[in-house]
Amino acid sequence: MPSEPPGKKPSKKDEKVRVPFRRNRNTRRRVKDWAEHAHGDPRDNAAHGERIAAKGELSRKRTIIVRSDAGPPEGLRPGIVLAVRGLYADVDDGTRTWPCTIRRIVRTRRIQERNAVTVGDRVHFSVGTDAGAEGAIEFVEPRRGTLQRLTGKRVHTIAANVDQAIIVSSAAEPAPKPHLIDRYIVAALYGGIAPVICMNKIDLDVAGAAASILDRYRALGYTVLGASARTGAGIDELRAVFKDKESAVAGQSGVGKSSLLNAVQPGLELKTGDIIEQTQKGRHTTTTARLIRLDMGGYVVDTPGIRSLDISRVPHFEIEAYFAEFVDRVKDCKFRNCSHTHEIGCAIKGAVERGEIHPDRYATYVELFEEAGRPRRSL
Known about the structure:
Blueprint: E1 15-20, E2 61-66, E3 77-85, E4 88-92, E5 97-102, H1 104-109, E6 122-127, E7 135-140, E8 147-151, E9 154-159, E10 164-170, H2 178-190, E11 194-200, H3 209-219, E12 223-226, H4 235-242, E13 245-250, H5 257-264, E14 275-276, E15 281-282, E16 290-293, E17 298-302, H6 324-327, H7 347-353, H8 359-373
Parallel strand pairs: 5-7, 10-11, 10-13, 11-12, 13-17
Antiparallel strand pairs: 1-2, 3-4, 3-6, 4-5, 6-7, 8-9, 14-15, 16-17
Helix pairs in contact: 2-8
């Protein structure tokens, strides 16, 4: 990601980014174990003029300026990232796949993220510049349509440049988790992509509980469908959803994401796993996200299964906007800054009491609101 060249005055639109200095990996100049030098004055071991205490936050970071009109340098090849493995990425330029390293300037520019490059990124890379790799990623284009979560204190972008997130749950083995579906919906909408709810293993829905969950989301205007990778039910409808779109498939482990993709496009032969009987949880058979081009047009990112989704980076007073049944009712709340958690005269709480808003959906909202409102150190 090019920074401002020396000698050129930055414009008002250019972005200033504070990043840590590179760590000093040299041997410490001062002896750490003072006990070994109990017979002498420990201060004799301190280097002259060296500070024992840090000078403050400014002493540990530097400023880089990223030009607002910066584009890829000339002479680079464009491509799309298929998979990421640590500091290496597989990049498809349309003719072949190149194993590439990721330039330090790219990693510095996105120091606040878990990975500087993710699956679906449009990148520009040079060829034959690094020993041990065939290419090096020099520039990453601005992203659109991202699916993200927090991992520790860093943002983890699961997939980039996608149109829709296919949120896969299962009717049984493991049981559906509506609160996790809600979290994925909020994450998708916050990232600017359309959520689609797919209930796999619909053939196991003997009591109709999974069908009622689908009805809940269908009534809210979301695209929903039931499918079964085992029987083939709903696969044609799912194939139509994928056609000519850039998609990300997401959901907890064991719901059958890879099995559905194998059914949608025979011949993929993606690895699948079984449910652990004691815990009714899935095994992690997909360990890294992978971009797959579809014969019907478009592509899909197959993501690893996760059992929790931290989306507390969404501002807590924006969460109401990602609950479809809240939007038209917010204006009726007694207070303009109503949090919909404890206030008197709250239109949302009233709708819950009248059965107009499902209590599970409201419980998820309260949980997300409280998580997002907790103090958190800046990323």
